[in-house]
Amino acid sequence: MQLFSILPIILIFAPLALLLSFAPYVTRETISFGVTVSQYNYYTPVLRKLRRTFATVSLIGNGLIILTCLYILRSANEESTTMITGVCTMIFIVYWAALHILFHFKMKKIKETLTTVEVPQRVKIDTTFRQNKLTYSNYWFLVHMAIIVAIAIITILNYNALPNVIPMKYDLQGNVTSSVPKTYLSVLAINLVQLGIIALMMLVNWSIKTSKQQLTPSNPAQFAADHIRFRRKWSLFTIITGLLLTILFAFIQINMFVPNQVLLTAISLITSVAILLGAILLSLTGRQGGGKIRNHQEDRERSKEQPVNDDDYWKLGFIYFNPKDPSFTVEKRYGIGWTINFARPLSWVLVLFIIAIVVLSRVLSQ
């Protein structure tokens, strides 16, 4: 079994399995498996048990998928390795989605049995929220652009030194398995992919800044302060992720001039793991929206007021579809981050744009 065929499974899938398994512990304290609950009910024994059960089942299932994949890969060749990894990835995603949907419907049934307190539903909002610096400026992406332009210029100046056939893909032994004729388009296509990724990262950063402000039934000042810190740290993570991906693709382009497949594979793996571990570490520093993961309040101190209930707009607990909401992005209900309002036409444009980047990258690798 080749080392580079198992490292991505261990270093990427294993941390991702942990992140997904414990996602219910980092959602807002007013959301349980995509269902709105009070903060008091979130900490009731029945919901604590539900989260533990989900984490246990998720870890066992994901662990079996990873071990099965590693077992099959032990005697796989280059072609079958790619196929096996792809199939395992799909099984991994389908298993997570099915498990979440199962627990989402379990939660909806449990909610009917939870004790509720009849109090007037109210929300408080910090009207100065938008006056604060919510994210880092998109001007930081000029650094990324400078790297892309520099690599493109170097490529053009050394165009004649490139071989007539450009290697695009290698096997695990460093042998070329796919190549294309040398043209300006083929050697600069990576720069187009880089520009697409940076445009996407800039959109993500803009979305973090402009996404809908969340409401709270109490203490709006503290709620807003936590939320601002939450947005800023994920904005910084977005900028750093964009920079790491820009550097990675720059190495891929440099590899055309100075081939070193072992180094390139190592850099690709390190970049992927660094981004994933960064996301996990950030997720462990606070809940969705900036709240603390460990709440040391007594039960009597936890709010029994029901938050704004918009469950009808969250399909299966994680797909937001609200034609009445002009917002393009909103906070996720499951895990950490943001999602799009699929009722807005621009959302589908974004989805097609992401698909186009993936397809272009795939075509370039053939």
Q: How would you describe this protein?
A:
The chain is mainly alpha-helical and 366 residues long. It is 57% helix and 7% strand. It contains nine helices and eight strands. The strands form four sheets. It has a two-stranded antiparallel sheet with strand order 1-2. A two-stranded antiparallel sheet has the order 3-4. Strand 5 and strand 6 form a beta hairpin. The longest helix has 35 residues.
Short summary:
By secondary structure, the chain is mainly α.
Helix and strand arrangement:
Blueprint: H1 3-21, E1 31-32, E2 35-36, H2 39-42, H3 45-73, H4 78-111, H5 141-157, E3 165-170, E4 176-181, H6 184-210, H7 220-254, H8 261-283, E5 314-315, E6 319-320, E7 329-331, E8 338-340, H9 345-365
Antiparallel strand pairs: 1-2, 3-4, 5-6, 7-8
Offer a few descriptive terms.
mainly alpha, two-stranded antiparallel sheet, two-stranded antiparallel ribbon, 9 helices, 8 strands
Number of helices: 9
- The total beta strand count reads 8
Q: Order of helices and strands, N to C? A: HEEHHHHEEHHHEEEEH
The whole-number mean of residue pLDDT values reads 82
| Sheet/helix structural class | mainly alpha
Radius of gyration: 23 Å
Q: Which regions have little confidence, pLDDT < 50, spanning 5+ residues?
A: none
Shape: globular
Helical content class: 55-70%
